């Protein structure tokens, strides 16, 4: 896999005060323990505690692990049940999300304690680490690096599976004195919740499963993901949303992938200094974009448009999108990669023999994939599926245990809300339907226009309303029909030359075309700024960086401290825009070999006034208002942060307002 594709795909896979020490004995011994909680230094809502559990739940191997946890007490009475909030991964700690869990689950926590804990091997719960991952330069391949990591972890690497985490949850239940648990999980957390429910059905009060991984999942070949791609592309283009750019987004993707498989696709990109580079483009990078789109509706919409452009021979928009998305590479700093592979490699049933050599394992897996019909991955190929899978890495894992036995234990028929984003590719709706079919009285809620992690990503209150209804014993309503959000509306194809741009309404000739090109350029600025903010996480974290990126055809743009600066920024070939803008003023110089030259400045009512080619012009298109408002909102966001510090509600408010602007960016 090329380096840019690998960086895109890494988007996939993102101290407490008191301890109560237990002997290294079977799980039953921990049931008598009490967890001593003390106030957390950084939170008034949670108390911090530790629980020491056996390394090996069976007791056959000596050793212990101390789990770090946080508890939010039920505000009413003494709780006899608790909500266990489970993060994704494997490898993602839960404690950093404790406050967010409380915000999401607050309505069901009035008579229940809420507990978040870092699963064994993650965060503050004895995190795994490998010298090999700290010095990757010492290894020629990632497979050799992973093999060295497994060796460095030693024989205890086998005690970090989902089953071990399930045993830890039961230890928490016993030590906390709870009769039953409500299990809330997102992504990999749903698998943990399901396996606990299979193992301890009598102790489960309810299940809330968001973005579902089936109990025996995920499929190492990601077939459900590939099967969902055509459906999700068609959903984006439903109701004529793509009529202005393509008749079939699936056909466009098929055409581009076929060209990439022949090595025929290259794209020209402009870096943040305005320098041009021509790079090869690969189908694996398209898979990475699609998966990254699970967390960005603007990325999903841009994907459809840029692939349509590439299908028609203009690869610059797609090349820029791939490079920009790749700049958000890597998991968060607190994601534990050694734990991810310790869990994934040990418990997934890969299509190879664990007794074989790494080279033989890879050959067996490739043979198994090639034996599947091409339709299993179309319009992509088995090679693309192999590249995004964990097979190339886990083939080098130093196995000492046999392959897992498929768990066919039934799920208990308890109150269950199973939530799926209709646009989710990581955990497609087919997964949710599979699990819902196993719980007769469960409620399956498919939330439109939403990708992965629905409760945190949905743009309406449909899923949160369903959660309240589940525990209020009132009917759960399906999501009300609604038009697609503006951010999911694919923009028009980028013009290949100025002669293809119609004159701005009310004007004619070259000045009219140039004025319209300026409007298109400002629209590109808005989309690029919002996309850069979304992939950097700034809208949520309120840590706005200085953003600098190239134009589509030439030039660069910089946004810092609420001020925008453009230097020969070009979206339409032959037309450049230079100047600056903030929440108070905008002053632009228009140039380029094909353009009517002139200058524009901000006028009354958020208009741009000036001259182009000697003609007096006024630009009052909504796209200008959006460009000015975007600058103002992001600048206001930065000023608010400097006054009050990070605040999630403020960030989400800014995010919503910015997302609403996308609708006016259409030409």
Task: Present the secondary structure layout.
Blueprint: H1 3-9, E1 37-39, E2 47-54, E3 64-72, E4 81-86, H2 98-105, E5 113-117, H3 131-134, H4 142-153, H5 162-176, E6 180-187, H6 188-199, E7 204-212, H7 223-236, H8 249-261, E8 266-270, E9 276-280, H9 283-292, H10 297-311, H11 316-326, H12 337-347, H13 358-370, H14 382-388, H15 391-394, E10 416-421, H16 429-436, E11 443-447, H17 454-457, H18 462-472, H19 509-536, H20 538-541, E12 547-550, E13 554-560, E14 563-570, E15 576-581, E16 586-591, E17 598-602, E18 608-612, E19 615-619, H21 622-644, H22 648-661
Parallel strand pairs: 4-5, 4-6, 6-7, 7-10, 10-11
Antiparallel strand pairs: 1-2, 2-3, 3-5, 8-9, 12-13, 13-14, 14-15, 15-16, 16-17, 17-18, 18-19
Q: What distinguishing features does this structure have?
A:
667 residues; 19 strands; 9-stranded mixed β-sheet; 8-stranded antiparallel β-sheet; 37% helix; alpha+beta; 17% strand
Describe this structure in words.
The chain contains 22 helices and 19 strands. The chain has 667 residues and is an alpha+beta fold. The strands form three sheets. A nine-stranded mixed β-sheet has the order 1-2-3-5-4-6-7-10-11, sandwiched between helices. The protein has an eight-stranded antiparallel β-sheet with strand order 12-13-14-15-16-17-18-19, covered by helices on one side. α16 links the parallel β10 and β11. The longest helix has 28 residues, at 509-536. The radius of gyration is 27 Å and the shape is globular. The two termini are 37 Å apart. Mean pLDDT is 86; it is low at 5-33, 539-543 and 635-667.
